[in-house]
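Tutorial handout. Part one gives the primary structure; part two gives the three-dimensional structure as tokens.
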Amino acid sequence: MPACRLAAWRGGRGHIEQGLEQALRTRPVPLSTEARLRFLLAAHRYSTRKVAAVLGVAQRTVQRWVTKKPGARRPPGPLHLRAIEEAVLARWQPRIRARRRAQAEAEGFVFHTRARFGFAAAAGSSDDPRVRWITQYLPGEVARELFAARDAGAGEQQQLVILARALGHAYFRDGGRRAHGLHIAFSDLEFADFSIG
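Part two.
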């Protein structure tokens, strides 16, 4: 499978969660509300009742969102938009996502980021934290740990700890060949992209 470098999409999730989710897909998720509703309807055999049950709203509400009658259409509110987005994300390319996750857990991935990195050192030294671009291969065990943390509901900070530990070992300590005991500072994450395959 060709390498796939995908930028993290904008949304309400952290950069790491966004990057992981984007890397698991091969096609972009529909962006417009209309396209998302069409996808949900198609996934549920065009049953507004089933889509309403998934979204936790009345069937009539879904019918108002998708009607073609002029003046009868009502747009979903902000809470409903979030529910629609989450329902689509949960159902988008499930087999491909499972296959790409298994691939990352078996073979590892390349992590691309721009963040503030440094070491525990006196202020003003060359080891003082500064913004760096880093592209680094990380092994499958890191992918397994990241996915397990995500599945357990870990937040962005816990995921940063996992990545800081992995980058400290692979990038800064050269796989354990130098700088033993070096403490890595990792903060101000600007983006997190993952390449799988």
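Part three, for discussion. Confidence is low (pLDDT under 50) at residues 1-12. The first strand starts at residue 4 and ends at 6.
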